[in-house]
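Blinded run. Sample ID left blank on purpose so nobody reads anything into the name before looking at the predicted structure. Input follows.
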Amino acid sequence: MLVLVRPETISPKVDFDRDENSMVFRNSGNTSVMLREIEACVANNTTCEKLAANRLYPGEVLDIKIPGKLQSSDLRIKTRQSVQFTENIVEYQ
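Blinded prediction complete.
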């Protein structure tokens, strides 16, 4: 069983960075964030790849290797982020 105890005032914040071969998500907020969906798409194309979902706890870093066919491309990264009872779609470029 997973029990999440959230702070009285939650402040979710997921930072994103990317290099040629990987993308990095950093939880710099004070509560866990569930990345329910992570999708990488070539910016001017419909070529997309769904990546594994993951929960990020405060201070945690998730480093994901970019699939070979998407490396060296301008990418749009779309995530479905859930915190407590809210869910948002957040895009990164």
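Unblinding after everyone has recorded impressions. The chain has a mean pLDDT of 91.
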